[in-house]
Each structure stands twice: as C-alpha cells, then as structure tokens.
Amino acid sequence: MNLNSKYFDMIRASRHQGREEKRAQMVEDGSRCDWPGCLKAGNYPAPAGAQTREKRHFCYDHVREYNRSYNYFEGMSQEEAERFRRAAQTGHRPTWSMGTRRASGSRVEDWQFQDPLEIMGEAGSSEANPAASGSKATSGQKRALNVMDLSDTASANDVRKKFKILVKQYHPDANGGDRSFEDKLQSVIQAHDYLKASGFC
Q1: Would you say 160 and 201 are in contact if contact means Cβ atoms under 8 Å apart?
Q2: Contact of 128 with 101, CB cutoff 8 Å
Q3: With CB atoms counted within 10 Å of each terminal CB, which end of the chain scores lower, N or C?
Q4: Is the CATH number 1.10.287.110 carried by domain 139-197?
Q5: Which pLDDT does position 160 carry in this prediction?
Q6: What is the gyration radius of the CA atoms in the chain, in angstroms?
Q7: Model confidence at 129: pLDDT above 90
Q8: Contacts of 38 (CB under 8 A, 6+ apart)
C-alpha cells in the first residue's frame, strides 16, 4: 500500500485530534485550575467525589497531585467501604452460595410457588421434600446406585459400606487372582467416584 497515494492523502487521523482545540476553548471560556491560588488553565477534569458526577478542573501539575490524594471512600463508614469492596469482587452483581444438594432440604425456596390446580405439574409444587417422592438422588446418582446394587434411598454411609464390600468381592487379590470380575470392579469404582464427585457421599 502506498501511503503517498492521492487516495489516502486525507484519510489519516490523529488520535489526539481535537484535544488541543478543546483545551484552548476551555482557556477562552475562563476555566481556571480549581486548586487554591493557582491561576493556570484548568484543562484536566477530575471527579469531584464518589457520590456525584460533577467534575473539577485542574492544571496538569495539580491534577496529578489531586489524583494521588483522591480517596473514593471518603465520607463512607468503615462498614460501607468494606461492603463496597466485597461487592466489587463480583462486579456489584448478585451472587448465590454454592454447594452440593442445596435444594434437597425441606425448606421452600423463594422461586417455588403454590399450584393448587396442578397446572404446572410437579414443577409447581411448593413441597420441596425429597422424602415425599421417595428419593433424593438425581438420575445419574440413581444409575450409579444401581451399579452398586443399592436402592435410590440409600444413605452416604450405606454407599461407603457397600463399596468396601464390593471391592473386596471383585478385586483379583481378594479372590485368588481371578480377573473375570475386573470389568465389574471398574464399574463399581466409577460409580463410587461419580457419587463422591456429585456430593452424594
């Protein structure tokens, strides 16, 4: 590409184009530095405070000094400042606590509602009681429990006990070196690992 071409003659634009004209206009408008005792032109805006959108205008030397000493939390209590810092970690967006099987309790969540006509089916039920349905396991957990020959209502302690029994039963060292149960042993180990990873036990 030839930059000396007549086609590209007027295309170039400076990043700073217009800044000097704007600053010269501010001087003509009589905008002076807000620093006490300074008579220079106030060409550099700085925030007046955290709670306001107003700007203060300073000269180059004083805007640097003002920015160094600026405290966003000035006028806030210690608790307000700490609350702001914690909220800033998530970008001031709402968050929810995370954990396994939070919804398995008997507590009714805010998003659940009454559905007396059963229009929404089970989704509209406000009874968040897994014991009513007979199981608190997800479909993946149910498959893993079936591999371990356990019912859907098995507890974490039952899973641990059954896992120990099945490993002893299918392990080649425990049954005289017979490797015919190796596939079954692998599936039991995978099922147990899945149940642990999903927070079941």
Answers
A1: yes
A2: no
A3: N
A4: yes
A5: 92
A6: 35
A7: no
A8: 32, 58, 59, 62
Ranges assigned E (strand) in 34-153 = 44-47, 55-58
Token pair recorded at residue 43: 């060409």
Residue where the block lists tokens 């005289």:
176
Cα-based angle 176, 178, 183 (whole degrees, multiple of 5) = 135
Helix ranges (H only) for 52-200 are 60-69, 78-88, 130-133, 139-147, 156-170, 182-197
Tokens 């184009």, residue? Answer: 17
Task: Report pTM.
Answer: 0.35
Task: Write out the two tokens for 163.
Answer: 């896992």
Domain with CATH 1.10.287.110 in the chain: 139-197
pLDDT at 53: 82
Tokens 């203060």, located at residue: 56
Please check whether residue 42 is in contact with residue 32, taking contact to mean a CB–CB distance below 8 angstroms. yes
